[in-house]
């Protein structure tokens, strides 16, 4: 019996059509748009002005607080302007727009392919470096990585969990990283272990990626304290709390951080970025993005610079099919539908998913038949049907009592609902409202 | 015979016991209540809309009785008539409040504001607003999903199918403010109803720079400042690329209306102007133009 | 690209499950029982089933179209399912007029008066059945003898059900084993060769249907297992305490509406609890009330009443029996101590 998390879960179709495609380097775009808020926390403060010449890897916006991250120029060229541009949310957010000229990198960055295994920095230096290099959680949550490397006083990390689950259908970027950058990944894990002072690391990988499991098992054979844990396929196993439950059997209590059960989780993409930052001095300016979808003629995994417009990635994957109905930034379960293809790739973009018209639409909503399926699939043990009603009726105190804030927005409830009710739409709204009420109370 | 007697006696005894318990309980838990609260509540319209800022008419009645000075308190549904009745009951001075009415400050109809994408989530403005900026290039404008209409208890609003915008039926609107609270975009505002229901307002809340706003919507306020300059009463201010007319200062001279390059300033219930050529922007609120 | 992009909140994929798939799934699961019913009761079963289904669908259509003024949603299969379940709970020699009254009560009062599908607190088919049982006790408790009267409808030869034989026998002082010799063997009971309502007799067909529901994941095991389990445990205790005075667990499970109720009536989505813990409590409640009515009540059978009574508790159960929240069991104690 393979391990998995203990409550709820669903089994959406895999559809990982780009799993066999190796990572290709995407040609440089003509112009990049770099939003200054690509992470959770305070937006970074812009350091450049119109007309400035920048090199790839140069800081263009400084971290705006502890929970924040530096933004580096992903290309070399001239700052075209600082403006507000429409991001994936459809709202205008400040961004730095750079016209690309050549490809000149900061001298301090080691661009060679050689594997550097020796870790010279001290744990404190590693945490500092990860912060400076603007590393954030690359699984999609974009939580600044250095914050997770600095456990609050009195809490001790016992195990480092590397998230190679990639439970979202379609996405394969982490899968490819594990296959092609295995060696770098192992060094990255050792760096994280050193920074966290732990002697045990577990790489959690779902069983639908046997090649990645085999490859990493081979690599970790001679490594002390690093093990690969194959997991039973079940969504949302990539959720932090679900993964900890699956790997260690411990459940993070409501409202608490993973460190409460002695675990720290990092995504494989983040781990690779940590390797590059610490060993190669390379800031987070490019990432692997899966471009896929039923109608895409050439599903691919691209190594793209941050700020590259989505339209260019789709072009490189064979162009937008004629009957395109929906373009999603991220996976089909938790990704955001894009209103425009001009939005840039950001640090959290794990994939671009193109759906044809016939898959783009929701079915009409019917009455709730109280079948209880949403309750049984909820991985947090919540009652989605009830939370939706409470939000609709604005009973926010009751929603809070029913643990609405524990919702991880995985979408299992809406996915399952036979009556096609927009459960998560309302729960997300209610979560926002309840969050506001809680903040105002304190 | 004795069975009948015993039954009657037992039941009578039980009844008497219950009566004694009830009497004692009502004595023990008696709460003194000002009888005027009931009187005031009687006078109020019992709409329980919350427009006064209190949860329901009863709570408002309690507040009215408790307050020494009720000039700040107003029942928007009942208006001056009800308030003077209340003042009579309580022997207090009533405040002078101008009648207000809700206005929709967005004219982004399908014609003026092209749809760039298609929203297909839950039919709720709040849900849509939590997701993204909307179907058009204007991330400030109306979503047209009708949270305000849903919130209205007085049948004073409906969605215009053609324009995709909510319409306020002026005669029904009591200015309770439910729609103002319901709108996640703060598009609806309570404004002074004005003499003969005539009023002027900027029908736009877009704070983008002029070019961006204009590109998204033909009738957006571009913050050019022409109205500000032409206003003889300093009633117009420009903030964040958006003009706002202060209804307390505005004297309804209408000088600002023709100077607006995007026809973003609306006038309501004025007689049709002579110099203007054809019909201008049909203001959102015409259905109720009684004057 | 000529069309506008669709924007909606996540998730962007759906399982493909639908209300009608679930409803038709239950109907499919009832087909073995329907065939068994046709085998045992012949033409009567056919007339009763068809009348009940047509009447329920028709009433739903009329009410939605002319009273509620909404688009009728009879194609979702819920009205047909109600009709089928109602028929399964009626004797097969019941006059058509009564079936139509039952259907009107089931759909009109049991379902639509609360707002239609999803809003009814009680199982509509059982509301209809219990209404008929109380209003027309004679017609509702004269059961055709199986097999022999296949080609008769209203004039079918009637006999008693094993449950009523047992009830009368025990109250007249006969012992359980004596009575058992008068009624069909356990095998016959399981195969359905006994008097009873149209769909409740054939235990084997109902169990087959129940397994289908479980495999298709239309229902979970919690309600059927807790209903049957609690009846078994409760009656076993009584039986072993006094073997002559009380019938054994197997008898109780195989007779009357227990299997039909446990798999198909108590599991009705709308009127059953949402959480697994709640389902277990609800199932045990049904089991216990059923046995109480059968053993101590004046009716020989109590499944319908038991389900309706527990339906009334569902809002309360949902309020207090929350699902197990993630992180509720504190396995963290060890770490915190260190």
From TrEMBL, chain A:
GO biological process, one term: electron transport chain
Stored SUPFAM superfamilies: alpha-helical ferredoxin (SSF46548), Nqo1 FMN-binding domain-like (SSF142019)
Subcellular location: Cell membrane
Self-association and partners: The complex is composed of six subunits: RnfA, RnfB, RnfC, RnfD, RnfE and RnfG.
Sequence similarity: Belongs to the 4Fe4S bacterial-type ferredoxin family. RnfC subfamily.
Keyword terms of this UniProt record: 4Fe-4S, Cell membrane, Electron transport, Iron, Iron-sulfur, Membrane, Metal-binding, Repeat, Translocase, Transport
Cofactor stoichiometry and binding remark: Binds 2 [4Fe-4S] clusters per subunit.
InterPro entries with a match to the protein in the record: 4Fe4S_Fe-S-bd, 4Fe4S_Fe_S_CS, Ion_transpt_RnfC/RsxC, Nuo51_FMN-bd, Nuo51_FMN-bd_sf, RnfC_N, Soluble_ligand-bd
UniProt-recorded name of the protein: Ion-translocating oxidoreductase complex subunit C
Known cofactor(s): [4Fe-4S] cluster
Main function: Part of a membrane-bound complex that couples electron transfer with translocation of ions across the membrane.
First-tier enzyme category under EC: translocase
Location of the 4Fe-4S ferredoxin-type domain: 358-381, 397-427
Membrane topology, as annotated: Peripheral membrane protein
PROSITE patterns: 4FE4S_FER_1, 4FE4S_FER_2
Gene name, Swiss-Prot/TrEMBL: rnfC
Entry superkingdom: Bacteria
Known EC number: 7.-.-.-
Principal localisation: membrane
UniProtKB/TrEMBL annotation, chain B:
Molecular-function GO term, any one: metal ion binding
Residues the record lists as binding [4Fe-4S] cluster 1: 49, 52, 57, 75
Chain residue ranges for the region called Hydrophobic: 1-26
Ligand binding ([4Fe-4S] cluster 3): 152, 173, 176, 179
Ranges for domain 4Fe-4S ferredoxin-type: 164-193, 210-241, 243-270
CDD domains documented for this protein: MtMvhB_like
Compartment(s): Cell membrane
Family as reported in the entry's similarity comment: Belongs to the 4Fe4S bacterial-type ferredoxin family. RnfB subfamily.
Protein name: Ion-translocating oxidoreductase complex subunit B
UniProtKB/TrEMBL annotation, chain C:
In-chain residues carrying the UniProt-annotated modification FMN phosphoryl threonine: 161
Keywords: Cell membrane, Electron transport, Flavoprotein, FMN, Membrane, Phosphoprotein, Translocase, Transmembrane, Transmembrane helix, Transport
Enzyme class: translocase
Record localization: Cell membrane
Major site of localization recorded for this protein: membrane
Cofactor (UniProt): FMN
One cellular component (GO) term of this entry: plasma membrane
Keyword set includes rRNA processing: no
Flavoprotein is among the record's keywords: yes
BP GO terms, sorted: electron transport chain; transmembrane transport
UniProt-listed InterPro entries: NqrB/RnfD (IPR004338), RnfD_bac (IPR011303)
E.C. no: 7.-.-.-
Transmembrane segments: 26-59, 94-114, 126-145, 194-214, 221-240, 246-267, 279-297, 303-321
UniProt membrane topology term: Multi-pass membrane protein
PANTHER family per record: ELECTRON TRANSPORT COMPLEX PROTEIN RNFD, ION-TRANSLOCATING OXIDOREDUCTASE COMPLEX SUBUNIT D
The protein's role, per its UniProt record: Part of a membrane-bound complex that couples electron transfer with translocation of ions across the membrane.
Oligomer status and interactors: The complex is composed of six subunits: RnfA, RnfB, RnfC, RnfD, RnfE and RnfG.
Protein family: Belongs to the NqrB/RnfD family.
Protein name: Ion-translocating oxidoreductase complex subunit D
Gene name tied to this protein: rnfD
């Amino acid at each position: 019996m393979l391990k998995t998390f203990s409550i709820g879960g669903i089994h959406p179709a895999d559809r990982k059509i780009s799993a066999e495609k190796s990572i290709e380097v995407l040609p440089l775009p003509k112009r990049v748009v770099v939003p200054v808020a690509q992470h959770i926390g305070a937006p970074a403060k812009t350091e450049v002005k119109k007309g400035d010449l920048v090199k790839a890897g140069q800081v263009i916006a400084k971290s705006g607080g502890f929970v924040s991250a530096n933004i580096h120029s992903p290309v070399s060229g001239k700052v075209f302007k600082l403006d507000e541009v429409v991001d994936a949310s459809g709202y205008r957010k400040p961004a730095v727009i750079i016209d690309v000229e050549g490809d000149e990198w900061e001298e301090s960055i080691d661009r060679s392919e050689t594997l550097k295994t020796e870790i010279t920095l001290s744990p404190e230096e590693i945490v500092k470096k990860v912060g400076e290099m603007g590393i954030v959680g690359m699984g999609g949550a974009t939580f600044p990585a250095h914050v997770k490397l600095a456990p609050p006083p009195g809490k001790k990390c016992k195990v480092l969990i590397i998230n190679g689950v990639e439970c979202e259908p379609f996405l394969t970027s982490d899968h490819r990283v594990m296959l092609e950058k295995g060696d770098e990944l192992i060094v990255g894990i050792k760096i994280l272990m050193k920074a966290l002072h732990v002697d045990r690391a577990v790489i959690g990988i779902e069983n639908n990626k046997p090649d990645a499991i085999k490859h990493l098992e081979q690599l970790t054979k001679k490594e002390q304290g690093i093990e690969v844990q194959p997991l039973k396929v079940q969504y949302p196993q990539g959720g932090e709390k679900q993964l900890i439950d699956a790997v260690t059997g411990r459940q993070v209590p409501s409202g608490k951080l993973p460190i409460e059960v002695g675990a720290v989780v990092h995504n494989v993409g983040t781990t690779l970025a940590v390797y590059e930052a610490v060993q190669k001095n390379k800031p987070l300016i490019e990432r692997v993005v899966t471009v896929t979808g039923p109608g895409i003629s050439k599903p691919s995994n691209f190594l793209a610079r941050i700020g590259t417009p989505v339209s260019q990635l789709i072009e490189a994957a064979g162009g937008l099919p004629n009957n395109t109905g929906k373009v999603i930034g991220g996976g089909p379960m938790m990704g955001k539908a894009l209103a425009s293809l001009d939005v840039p790739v950001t640090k959290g973009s794990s994939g671009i998913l193109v759906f044809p018209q016939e898959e783009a639409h929701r079915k009409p909503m019917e009455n709730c038949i109280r079948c209880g399926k949403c309750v049984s699939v909820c991985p947090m043990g919540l009652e989605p049907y009830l939370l939706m009603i409470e939000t609709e009726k604005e009973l926010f105190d009751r929603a809070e009592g029913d643990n609405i804030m524990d919702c991880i927005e995985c979408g299992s409830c809406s996915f399952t609902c036979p009556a096609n009710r927009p459960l998560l739409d309302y729960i997300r709204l209610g979560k926002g409202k309840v969050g506001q009420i809680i903040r105002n109370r304190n | 015979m004795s069975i009948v007697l015993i039954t009657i006696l037992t039941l009578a005894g039980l009844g008497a016991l219950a009566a004694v318990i009830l009497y004692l309980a009502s004595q023990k838990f008696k709460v003194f209540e000002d009888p005027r609260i009931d009187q005031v509540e009687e006078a109020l319209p019992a709409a329980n809309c919350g427009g006064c800022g209190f949860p329901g008419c009863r709570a408002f009645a309690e507040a009215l009785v408790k307050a020494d000075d009720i000039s700040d308190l107003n029942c928007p549904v009942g208006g001056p008539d009800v308030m003077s009745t209340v003042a009579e009951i309580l022997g207090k001075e009533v405040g002078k409040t101008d009648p207000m009415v809700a206005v929709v400050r967005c004219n982004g109809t399908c014609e003026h504001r092209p749809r760039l994408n298609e929203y297909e989530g839950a039919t709720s403005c709040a849900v849509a607003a939590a997701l993204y900026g909307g179907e058009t290039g204007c991330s400030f404008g109306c979503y047209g999903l009708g949270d305000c209409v849903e919130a209205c208890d007085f049948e004073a609003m409906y969605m215009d199918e053609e324009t995709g915008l909510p319409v306020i039926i002026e005669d029904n609107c009591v200015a309770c403010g439910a729609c103002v609270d319901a709108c996640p975009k703060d598009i609806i505002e309570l404004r002074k109803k004005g003499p003969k229901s005539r009023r002027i307002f900027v029908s736009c809340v877009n704070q983008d720079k002029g070019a961006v706003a204009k590109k998204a919507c033909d009738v957006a306020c571009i913050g050019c400042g022409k109205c500000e300059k032409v206003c003889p009463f300093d009633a117009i201010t420009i903030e964040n690329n958006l003009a706002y007319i202060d209804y307390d200062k505005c004297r309804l001279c209408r000088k600002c209306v023709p100077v607006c390059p995007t026809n973003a300033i609306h006038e309501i219930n004025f007689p049709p102007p002579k110099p203007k050529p054809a019909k201008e922007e049909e203001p959102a609120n015409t259905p109720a133009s009684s004057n | 690209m000529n069309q506008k992009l669709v924007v909606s909140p996540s998730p962007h994929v759906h399982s493909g499950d639908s209300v009608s798939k679930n409803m038709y799934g239950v109907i499919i699961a009832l087909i073995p029982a329907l065939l068994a019913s046709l085998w045992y009761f012949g033409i009567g079963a056919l007339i009763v089933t068809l009348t009940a289904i047509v009447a329920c669908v028709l009433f739903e259509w009329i009410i939605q179209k002319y009273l509620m003024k909404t688009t009728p949603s009879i194609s979702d299969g819920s009205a047909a399912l109600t009709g089928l379940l109602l028929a399964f709970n009626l004797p097969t020699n019941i006059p058509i007029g009564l079936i139509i009254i039952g259907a009107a009560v089931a759909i009109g009062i049991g379902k639509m008066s609360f707002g239609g599908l999803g809003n009814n607190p009680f199982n509509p088919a059982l509301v209809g059945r219990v209404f008929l049982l109380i209003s027309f006790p004679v017609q509702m408790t004269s059961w055709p003898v199986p097999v022999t009267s296949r080609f008769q409808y209203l004039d079918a030869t009637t006999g008693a059900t094993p449950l009523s034989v047992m009830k009368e026998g025990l109250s007249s002082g006969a012992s359980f084993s004596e009575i058992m010799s008068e009624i069909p063997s356990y095998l016959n009971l399981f195969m359905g060769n006994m008097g009873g309502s149209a769909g409740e007799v054939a235990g084997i067909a109902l169990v087959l249907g129940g397994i289908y529901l479980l495999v298709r994941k239309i229902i979970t095991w919690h309600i059927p297992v807790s209903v049957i389990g609690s009846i078994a445990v409760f009656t076993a205790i009584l039986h072993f305490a006094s073997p002559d005075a009380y019938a054994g667990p197997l008898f109780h499970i195989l007779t009357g509406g227990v299997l039909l109720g446990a798999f198909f009536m108590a599991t009705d989505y709308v009127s059953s609890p949402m959480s697994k813990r709640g389902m277990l409590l609800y199932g045990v409640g049904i089991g216990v009330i059923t046995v109480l009515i059968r053993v101590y009540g004046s009716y020989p059978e109590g499944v319908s009443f038991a389900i309706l009574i527990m339906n009334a508790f569902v809002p309360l159960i949902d309020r207090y029996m929350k699902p197990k929240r993630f992180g509720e069991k504190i396995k963290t104690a060890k770490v915190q101590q260190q």
